[in-house]
Amino acid sequence: MNEPTHTFSGHCHCGAISMELAFTQDAEEMQVRSCQCDFCIRQGSLTVSEAAGRAVITVEADQLTTHSFGSQTAQFLICSRCGVYAGAIMADGDELLSIANARGLGIEAFSHRLGTQMTHDDETTPDRIDRRRQRWTPTEINFKL
Ligand SMILES: [Zn+2]
């Protein structure tokens, strides 16, 4: 299996939430997605993730707001200070999976991309969890106190 050697990093506008990403594919090979749910449309989300990759999220603990809706299976990470939507996480047993919002994190390697439009409105909750297992990035989250 390919090692995740392509690294990307970004942070919200003020820097309270940052993400370090490592993917097996380079930026141009990565699928960049533009989810068509009501939340992502409002945000103009442009997300990336890879099941074979790795992500490390670092947040200032007192600057994190989380938002859940719909199936309540993911938590959307929003900076309390600057208001940027940085990405989303889902707990899967002992593991944490995430997507990165390359737009909110200001990751330049993806900034020129047009997201593939994704509509997941008709998914059942088990299907939704399954899809994320196949696409989202195994993640570690660190809280700075
Ligand atoms: Zn911020």
What does this protein structure show overall?
There is one protein chain. By secondary structure, the chain is α+β, with helices and mostly antiparallel strands. The chain is 17% helix and 41% strand. Strands 1, 2, 4, 5, 6, 7, 8, 9 and 11 form a nine-stranded mixed beta sheet that branches. The chain has a two-stranded parallel ribbon with strand order 3-10. A hairpin with a 7-residue loop joins β6 and β7. The protein is globular, with a radius of gyration of 14 Å. Bound molecules: zinc ion.
In CATH's first tier, which class applies? Answer: Mainly Beta
Tally the helices. 4
Strand content: 35-45%
Kindly report the CATH topology. Metal Binding Protein, Guanine Nucleotide Exchange Factor, Chain A
> Portion of residues in helices?
10-25%
Span of the ends, CA to CA: 37 Å
The average pLDDT is: 95
- Give the ordered list of helices and strands: EEEHEEEEEEHHEHE
Going by helix content, strand content and strand pairing, the class is alpha+beta
CATH architecture: Beta Complex
Morphology call: globular
| Major sheet attributes | 9 strands, mixed
**Care to count the β-strands?**
11
* Rg from Cα: 14 Å
Task: List the uncertain runs.
Answer: none
